[in-house]
Amino acid sequence: LSLRNNENSKKRGLNIPPGSMGWPLLGETIAFRRLHPCTSLGEYMEERMRKYGKIYKSNLFGAPTIVSADAELNRFVLMNDGRLFEPSWPKSVSEILGKTSMLVLTGEMHRYMKSLSVNFMGIARLRAHFLGDSELYITQNLRRWKENISFPAKEEACKVTFNLMVKNILSMSPGEPETEKLRKLYMSFMKGVVAFPLNLPGTAYRKATQARATILKTMERLMEERIQKKREGTDEIGESDLLGFILEQSNLDAEQFGDLLLGLLFGGHETSSTAITLAIYFLADCPRAVEQLRDEHIEIVKAKKRRGEPPALTWEDYKQMEFSQCVVSETLRLGNIIKFVHRKASTDVQFKGYDIPSGWSIIPVFAAAHLDPSVYENPQKFDPWRWQTISTSTARIDNYMPFGQGLRNCAGLELAKMEIAVFLHHLVLNFDWELTEPDQPLAYAFPEFQKGLPIKVRKISIIE
Ligand code: HEM
User: Fold this and answer.
1) Which entry of 218, 271, 289, 456 is 20 to 30 Å from 329 by CA?
2) What are 300-314's pLDDT values in tens digits?
3) If you measure from the C-alpha of residue 416 to the centroid of ligand 1, how many angstroms do you get, rounded to a whole number?
């Protein structure tokens, strides 16, 4: 199909970007997926960019594809979502995330689900629920850290972000048997989303489809139980979790709710735990940034004491974490948690003299601008201070897209930034840490630390 499409475009005299379509069927998918550090673009892209420039054609995931390392084209694609472009995730991803998942929905239904999620994670709820809950789960978690014993940081970050999401989605508490059951199911589901999509018995992909079905059944049961409680007048949760909020504010059925839940767990758990782990990794090599972070957070705590406030962080305290936000921005730039997204042209599109034929896939690679030396001086360097000056520059909008942009931008970006900052607050106030083994994050579906980033901590006590 890809080759036929390519031939048709030639016949129509279109100016398709240069590139190679690779092998029949497989195209260049294997080379595209080859592991490389997430702080680089990898050999496949670097070689193609040297040969063909920032916009080139290929054959990926079974479709003729334009790969874009061009920041302007990436922005053009995202700003024309729903008009010239639509989502086009590989079938394996869309099947596992569900047909009513936000990543694949378009039009009215996408807008509806998006507005539910954005409202659910709006500033009011961040202040009222997520901030206090994040702090609670983070402190509960860090309190258990033992000195001088190596442990994987990723696992700890995952516990925090998972607990936060299930508490706010389903009012489930950490450590309860039902929460643990859901966590295990979710882990199998997650492995399948990123695995090679081979739907055979015993494969990660098959296990994930089974986990998905079980999670959906659990959702259905929880929904029925809540409806029953509402009828009996014994529901105490009301709209304080997503399930209650959806029951009051929408008419989603159990499957739609299940897909929304999986999407938020998937979107909110793996990404932010990866971001926290990446910050721990980058900071371990940048003591000056840890020192400056520590000063910032000590000052926040002292100011609270001076004002006679209780120790819990408030939204106003969070807003004081300016250098921490620079650390967050730099972690997301260099870590490239979502390296690229999948779209396809819903009509013939022209850009910079090139034609992108209707039906072709396009992969905007956000990481390309994040690592471009003409945009970010010394791009391989973890340099949070660069954000103290960049923030006023307009270049940032085009060249910095860790959360995507436009219609389909991240619904949880404020939550994510807050979670990372609150984690940093308690981390730098309570611990020094070092990496115990080399473990570089590799660009898999998400950046992945092969060993989960083993670290060793030392407790410090700087606030009397
Ligand atoms: C550092 C952490 C995060 C990063 C880097 C990130 C990144 C992204 C990106 C790049 C997109 C755009 C996908 C596209 O264009 O197709 C996206 C969408 C989305 N994200 Fe996030 N995200 C993060 C955290 C979260 C959190 C905490 C949540 C919520 C719990 C969340 C929920 C979503 C949802 C629901 C969408 C789909 C929006 C839509 O289709 O309109 N994300 N995220």
Assistant:
1) 456
2) 999 999 999 999 999
3) 9
Which residues neighbour 329 within 8 Å (Cβ) at sequence distance 6 or greater? 384, 387, 400
Ligand 1: which of 193, 278, 403, 407 to mutate, judged by most atoms within 8 Å of the beta carbon? 403
74 lines ligand 1 (CB under 6 A): no
Alpha carbons 351 and 14: distance in angstroms, whole number: 12
**Ligand 1 atom nearest residue 117's Cα:** 35
pLDDT classification of 13: cutoffs 50, 70, 90: confident
Cα–ligand 1 centroid distance for 409 (angstroms): 7
Q: How far is the CA of 272 from the centre of ligand 1 (A)?
A: 10
Q: Is 271 in the pocket of ligand 1 (CB under 6 A)?
A: yes
pLDDT band at 67 (very low <50, low <70, confident <90, very high): very high
DSSP-assigned states of every residue in 368-382: HHHT-TTTSSSTTS-
Query: In the numeric block, which tokens belong to residue 200?
Result: 């055979």
Q: Specify the residue with its C-alpha closest to ligand 1, atom 1.
A: 272
Distance, C-alpha 202 to centroid of its chain: 28
362 SS3 class: strand
Q: Which residues pair with 376 in a beta bridge?
A: none
Q: What is the ipTM of this complex?
A: 0.99
